[in-house]
Amino acid sequence: MERAAALNESGAAAPWLPGRGDNASLELASRPPAPPIINPWDVMLCVSGTAIACENAIVVAIICYSPSLRTPMFMLIGSLATADLLAGLGLILNFVFQYVIRSETVSLITVGFLVASFTASVSSLLAITVDRYLSLYNALTYYSERTVLCIHTMLVGTWGVSLCLGLLPVLGWNCLHDYAACSIVRPLTKSNVTLLSASFFLIFIIMLHLYIEICKIVCRHAHQIALQQHFLTASHYVATKKGVSTLAIILGTFGASWLPFAIYCVVGDPDYPSVYTYATLLPATYNSMINPIIYAYRNQEIQRSMWVLFCGCFQSKVSFRSRSPSDV
């Protein structure tokens, strides 16, 4: 914003410098504008977007390539990878359009694309959490048509809401002609980012509650096994501890990535230095970089599909155990 203001001031003053004639003014006005100075933070966001796009493109390709990965769990992982892939592409396009094609319309479309992509990513994480909870709470009826219908409903809701939120800036909820209404993320308005932040806080609270319930179920199952065997074996203790630790890592990573930016969206002011916005936004993008590692690459069925996809000569000498959503 500061750079844009400086460019506007220089562009307005240059053709009418005092002490020069009209010819000199026309000559200055006809010169090509100086190329914008590239912000290092924008470069880091572009690099982050490139890494995000590459990681998640592999996951999307694996799920589309492998007919065996058609279960509800992998549909949700595919939704998450698709959303993160689009978010990565959006960060790349934002950099290109910011420094190559400078247009208000393009800016609105890019921002709307990023809002929709990151909203779909966060919503897909919530859907995966709900799926994991259902796989434990309704373990006997999980593999049924009712579960497939539930997954399809969550996917439609996730992408429908994300698309609507992404279209809001494009359809007029922006601050291009009212700087006083701008938020820390121009051209989004303060009310727009407040809505997005409130939605994130709600999703985070729901995920926290569900993961606490999952921990209770896991510990209760371990206790029942201990009662049946009259003691808790070391393997069951290790598995329970590992499961709870994994849940803590998943939720901790999600919160550490997005909470600073969501909080700053509420308390921040557009007149604050832009470095504060970049410093909170950049870690939020890292969540999309970590998601495929947590939810995809650790899955043994996806690992096996990667061998088939990239090697083409997979020998079934390595044992892969089929995993369910409850294998956290």
UniProtKB/TrEMBL annotation:
<keyword id="KW-0325">Glycoprotein</keyword>
<feature type="domain" description="G-protein coupled receptors family 1 profile">
    <location>
        <begin position="55"/>
        <end position="295"/>
    </location>
</feature>
<dbReference type="GO" id="GO:0004930">
    <property type="term" value="F:G protein-coupled receptor activity"/>
</dbReference>
<feature type="transmembrane region" description="Helical">
    <location>
        <begin position="41"/>
        <end position="65"/>
    </location>
</feature>
<dbReference type="InterPro" id="IPR000723">
    <property type="entry name" value="GPR_3/6/12_orphan"/>
</dbReference>
<feature type="transmembrane region" description="Helical">
    <location>
        <begin position="275"/>
        <end position="297"/>
    </location>
</feature>
<protein>
    <submittedName>
        <fullName>G-protein coupled receptor 6</fullName>
    </submittedName>
</protein>
<feature type="transmembrane region" description="Helical">
    <location>
        <begin position="149"/>
        <end position="173"/>
    </location>
</feature>
<feature type="transmembrane region" description="Helical">
    <location>
        <begin position="77"/>
        <end position="101"/>
    </location>
</feature>
<keyword id="KW-0472">Membrane</keyword>
<keyword id="KW-0675">Receptor</keyword>
<dbReference type="InterPro" id="IPR017452">
    <property type="entry name" value="GPCR_Rhodpsn_7TM"/>
</dbReference>
<keyword id="KW-1003">Cell membrane</keyword>
<keyword id="KW-0564">Palmitate</keyword>
<keyword id="KW-0597">Phosphoprotein</keyword>
<feature type="transmembrane region" description="Helical">
    <location>
        <begin position="244"/>
        <end position="263"/>
    </location>
</feature>
<dbReference type="InterPro" id="IPR000276">
    <property type="entry name" value="GPCR_Rhodpsn"/>
</dbReference>
<keyword id="KW-0807">Transducer</keyword>
<feature type="transmembrane region" description="Helical">
    <location>
        <begin position="193"/>
        <end position="212"/>
    </location>
</feature>
<comment type="similarity">
    <text>Belongs to the G-protein coupled receptor 1 family.</text>
</comment>
<feature type="transmembrane region" description="Helical">
    <location>
        <begin position="107"/>
        <end position="128"/>
    </location>
</feature>
<keyword id="KW-0812">Transmembrane</keyword>
<keyword id="KW-1133">Transmembrane helix</keyword>
<dbReference type="GO" id="GO:0005886">
    <property type="term" value="C:plasma membrane"/>
</dbReference>
<dbReference type="InterPro" id="IPR001151">
    <property type="entry name" value="GPR6"/>
</dbReference>
<dbReference type="Pfam" id="PF00001">
    <property type="entry name" value="7tm_1"/>
</dbReference>
<keyword id="KW-0297">G-protein coupled receptor</keyword>
<keyword id="KW-0449">Lipoprotein</keyword>
